[in-house]
Amino acid sequence: MKRVLVIIVTYNGMRWLDRCLSSVISAPSSVISSEVEKSVFVVDNDSTDGSADWIQGHFPGVKLVRSAENLGFTKANNLGFEWALSHGYDYVYLLNQDAWLAPGALETLVAEAEAHPEYAVLSPLQMTDGYKAYDAQFGKIYNADVNAPVVQVGRVMAAHWLVKVEALRVIGMFSDLFPYYGQDDDWCNRARYHGWKIGIVPEAKAVHDRAARKEAKDRIIDRNYRVGSLVRLCDINRPLWERFLFVILFTLVKTVKYFSIKPVKDFIGICKILPDLVYLRDIYKKNYGSSRHT
Hints:
The protein is built from eleven helices and nine strands. It is α/β, with parallel strands linked by helices. It has two domains: 2-208, Alpha-Beta Complex (Spore Coat Polysaccharide Biosynthesis Protein SpsA, Chain A); 217-284, no CATH class. Strands 1, 2, 3, 4, 5, 6, 7, 8 and 9 form a nine-stranded mixed beta sheet that branches. Helix 1 links the parallel strand 1 and strand 2 (36-44). Helix 8 (217-233) runs antiparallel to helix 9 (240-258), helix 8 (217-233) packs parallel to helix 10 and helix 9 (240-258) packs antiparallel against helix 10 (262-272). Residues 290-294 have low confidence and may be disordered.
């Protein structure tokens, strides 16, 4: 029996919570479900729409942590990671509040993880509501032409992540440098450095419902440029000087693309914390477990 802790971070997510939680807790049994024991760990980031009360009333069996402030995605998930590490779980499953699993998907992922122990993270196909198309970002990294039980990729979004706890002990938790975005790409880079693989399981399907959302221009620049630059500079699979030269070019490209001076201002801010990034890269290279995975 493999124990899986499903970690869900909520913030004003009432429109999704029933489908999200029901896909884990009320999911129909499958042929291999008897091999998987699921528990749910929810961190509510001080929601104002009654999310925490609704979860407590409708799903009393979950472990619910009510934060007095918005911890962000990283710190909230790290609470779940710590719980899994200290309570003997074999896997954690990161599940966005705006996401849900198809019946049997989690069990399929666990079965493939057991068959392919070299993978630190496995993701199902991340699709739009109704399973009619791939999530836009997911479609950029998944090669549907590869015929294999697990398709190896360099990264995958953490809306749906099955994480091997053994790998978590080696790689460490999410970095506070990335409170809302980028922590998943950063963690995948660290995983690959320590000899682990990242994969997608085509037989498992799930939804990430983020269609038709609008963001302010500055927020888009922050996520795509500033966070993207930090992820690249922290990538210990490449030398820092190479990553820095890339970010200089990246700054020029994004300044023109967005017709905004914000990337230049962000670049100046990044330069000021370069010593901290050098230190963080050294921390990333430490092996928290007993040995580098091969």
